[in-house]
Design a protein that fits this description.
Blueprint lengths: L3 E2 L17 H5 L18 E8 L5 H10 L3 E3 L7 H6 L4 E2 L2 E2 L2 E4 L9 H12 L4 E9 L2 H11 L11 H18 L2 E4 L5 H12 L8 E8 L10 E4 L20 H8 L4 H21 L4 E8 L5 H15 L5 E4 L7 H9 L1
Parallel strand pairs: 2-6, 2-7, 3-6, 7-8, 9-11, 9-12, 10-11
Antiparallel strand pairs: 1-8, 4-5
């Protein structure tokens, strides 16, 4: 597996460290300076990350992931204007300036690695910013494969083989690679794996919030248009056929008591609850921002409503903050639909 070079490596001596990719290894990467628990002026300083590297190594993927994590992202920005950009007003979230990621590469106007290093040295002395540089590297053979696969020309090899352009760019960027605080070799990474590494490395300490929606619906009125997990509750005994329970809903205690009395309810609820609690952290680790969980029964007023209410309570006890929606709870024709579906 391709190495990931971390900030522990001194500048000018960033030798490859063989770290196989995986969630546990990714979590071991050191946080950027202002992610520490130290108090002081650094807590309000502007986080700035310079993202560069070889063309085709994954800069666009990395910047898109940072944007998903709440960073302000600017690509192909002339680095010589960086000090002006930092001094300009920035978006503010929760009282803090949003972290800023600047992408540039050998195509950027006025690109000069050595001048960039001198600028970074000068800006690094300011007390109001926390500046770091990320260099995305990739093996020459893999880069050549990617160019051949996409049928794109290398900007430095318009009339030459791709390998010549890669070699020229690598030589041009070598001073910047040696200087970089972090080097990630993407040779063996898919876009998804690079996203996981970036997420583990640059997500906020409290993690990216996962928006969970739990809903109930009636199959008689159609499936929900958006749902990641759908559970059919029609295997449970239907309160609709109990005259005293028919006008009530799954939010009423008598209906809940009736459903709980079904021998299948306890085990079914426990298994579904455990499955959802197992899946949610894994969805979050994959960068999924929204998860929609839907429970259906015939009319959408009794079994699905009760199950959705119970799962929502269980998720809140486990630290999530789900939104609860009942699509068909107030539908006037629900009784007619329930009876028609049961004939």
């Amino acid at each position: 597996m391709a190495p990931i070079l971390t900030p522990e490596v001194p500048r000018g001596d960033n030798r490859n460290l063989a770290l196989p990719f995986g969630p546990r290894q990714a979590q071991s990467l050191r946080p950027m300076p202002d992610e520490s628990d130290e108090s002081g002026s650094k807590a309000t300083s502007q986080r700035v990350l310079l993202v560069t590297g070889l063309l085709g190594a994954g800069k666009t993927t990395a910047l898109k992931l940072l944007e998903d994590l709440g960073w302000e992202v600017i690509d192909n920005f002339p680095v010589r204007l960086l000090d002006r950009l930092i001094d300009s007003p920035a978006p503010v979230a929760n009282g803090d300036r949003a972290p800023l990621a600047i992408g540039f590469d050998s195509r950027t106007r006025g690109f000069n690695p050595r001048e960039t290093i001198e600028l970074v040295k000068r800006l690094g002395g300011r007390g109001d910013i926390e500046l770091a540089t990320l260099f995305l590297d990739c093996g020459s053979a893999e880069l050549e494969r990617r160019y051949n696969e996409t049928r794109r020309r290398h900007p430095l090899a318009q009339d030459m083989p791709v390998a010549s352009g890669i070699r020229a760019e690598r030589e041009l960027l070598e001073p910047l690679r040696r200087w970089a605080d972090m080097v990630i070799d993407t040779s063996a990474f898919s876009a998804n794996e690079l996203g996981q590494v970036m997420r583990q490395r640059f997500a906020a300490a409290d993690g990216q919030a996962l928006t969970v929606t739990v809903s109930s619906f009636g199959f008689a009125r159609g499936m929900p248009p958006v749902a990641d997990l759908v559970f059919d509750m029609r295997f449970l005994d239907n309160p609709h056929w109990q005259p005293k329970l028919k006008p009530l809903t799954g939010q009423d205690q008598p209906v809940g008591d009736h459903i709980r009395a079904d021998p299948a309810f306890g085990e079914a609820f426990a298994r579904i609850r455990d499955l959802v609690l197992f899946l949610l952290p894994r969805y979050q680790a994959q960068g999924k921002a929204y998860v929609n969980i839907a429970f259906g029964c015939t009319g959408g007023r009794h079994r699905s409503v009760f199950f959705a209410e119970e799962l929502t309570a269980a998720l809140r006890q486990s630290g999530f903050s789900p939104t609860l929606l009942h699509r068909n709870l107030g539908a006037r024709a629900a009784d007619l639909l329930e009876e028609a579906q049961s004939r």
